[in-house]
Amino acid sequence: MAHVRVIENGLVVTMDDENSILEKGYVVINDDRISEMGSGECEIDADESINASGCVVMPGLVTAHTHLYGILLRGATLDIEPPSDFAQVLQRVWWPLDEKLTLGDAYASGLSASADLLKNGSTFLADTYSGPNSIEGSLDRIADATNRLGIRALLAFEMTERHTEEEASRGLEENIRFAGECDSCQNLASLMVSIHASFTVSDELIEQSAAKAEQLGVPLTIHTSEGAVDLYHNLEQYGERTVERLHRLGALGENTVLAHCVHVNDEELNLIAKTDSRVAHNPMSNNLNAVGTAPVPEMLSRGIKVGLGNDGWIFDPFENMRCAYTIHKLSHRNPSIISPLQVVRMATIDGARCYNLESEIGSLEAGKAADIVVIDGGRAPTPLTSESVIGHIVNTFSGRDVRDTMVNGEPVVRNGRLTRMDESEVVKASREAARDLWSRMSG
Questions:
Q1: Are residues 268 and 246 in the same domain?
Q2: Residues 178 and 133 in one domain
Q3: pLDDT tens per residue, range 291-341
Q4: Which residues of 239-250 are buried (b: 16+ CB within 10 A; e: fewer)?
């Protein structure tokens, strides 16, 4: 028998095609689906009523690109020579970290980062894992964590030939194996195929990965011109810019998500638009690594689908929205270059479009999965209305204002607390894993 929940008396931000906002709105949830929405009194006889008076009700936020294991580096003091460019960041920080990761780290970081995301209003993540010494079984361990907490997850092992071709082959086999596991069980985790970046892989691996993603019917994602090292490598080795090379190898298209795209020119943007490839924008990470600012306004003007990611650094999507809203104003010296609505769409429905999931998630509409966030509007210093709410989402709210989070109609966060797992258990696992990882990195 169906279980019916009603969220009522809220300011409902739908993010549908008309950007509809319902005052004193309600959302009816029939098991895992939204069955009805409207304004005023709801006459449905529900099993459970959730009062959202004074709250904003909106779609679960979409994290279009992340590395869950990055959370284990938070607060770490590394005994390294400070890097002076992005290549050195990889060589001195991330690649040594990758090589020390264990399956236990994959699980613990999956728990910790997923908990952070859910409590901050994200109901979907696209994660790539990159542990060359913990390949086999890594996706199962991450899925164990994400499924336990109840977040929707698109997972991949990130292939690279940085060490050997055999390492990349093992990564591809892990992706293929996990795809079969996803097909045979009912859970919230599914597969995508991931390549680290074009400057760490051969033409053959790019072609093979694109073909395998197409065969499996799953997305392909690749770090693209995040730093200038990627661009220079392709120019020197192939006489092509990064996106040009990916296009030649058949890696662009509507099932491809290009992460970052900082060092791209107009011709490359035209190729991305022409092939209907998608972009995951990671503004806070780009700032952290000092690589530059992706030309997102130019992407949007071409109709390119752009989602918002965190690249494994800050797991509060509201902080990432604020950064996306401000960084382009600064880089263009134009305070009107991007609007709050465009940013919120990147974090919701356009993020879903990146992975062709817009018929399932990203907006509140009848028939869609009930991935919903309830935000406590009590901290808003000015009136919270249908006219002001988009501005408040970008300028006022943060993850600490998230009261409730639902995935597939199930409350996975209530009153700011996880429902499926004791938070002290998450913290304990994460701290123990981080302590051991830091020790291995300094040993």
A1: yes
A2: yes
A3: 999 999 999 999 999 999 999 999 999 999 999 999 999 999 999 999 999
A4: ebbbbbbbbebe
